[in-house]
Design goal:
With 138 residues, the protein is mostly helical. Helices cover 70% and strands 0% of the residues.
């Protein structure tokens, strides 16, 4: 038996790799945004307070669609019914569509652009996510 993944396994492996890269990017974005928030509002006293801010404060609203997409990928990859290749490709496309930094665009696009400009770690991780999310024809 061969240990090489078949071409049918590639979209699923790509989605798993993309999910992991998105988790790293999301963490870097949270860390970067925390620094900026603290510059304006003062030190966040605890991780509990930070969690509350991330889930409830408008400052962090733009990050929530990223969290929601990661959760959607988690649900799809752990569902009782196996995911289809089309579903995996749709989730990959959702990542491509969501994580497009731009100077002018949606709030998420603009905030992502700003985070990339100020934080080299975010820039590196965004590039990795973008690379993993590319379709074969790109």
């Amino acid at each position: 038996m061969s240990s090489t993944p078949s071409s049918l396994d590639l979209p699923f492996q790509r989605l798993r790799d993309l999910r992991l890269a998105m988790l790293h990017l999301h963490k870097a974005l949270l860390d970067s945004e925390r620094i900026v928030y603290e510059q304006f509002h003062g030190r966040i006293k605890s991780n509990v307070e930070f969690f509350q801010l991330v889930t409830e404060h408008e400052w962090f609203d733009w990050l929530r669609p990223i969290s929601q997409l990661i959760a959607k990928i988690d649900e799809a990859t752990s569902a009782k019914e196996p995911m289809t290749i089309a579903e995996a490709n749709q989730l990959i496309e959702a990542v491509r569509s969501l994580l497009k930094p731009a100077q002018e665009g949606t709030t998420l696009e603009k905030q992502l652009y700003r985070a990339i400009q100020r934080d080299p770690n975010v820039a590196m991780l965004q590039a990795k996510v973008a690379s993993l999310a590319k379709t074969a024809g790109d």
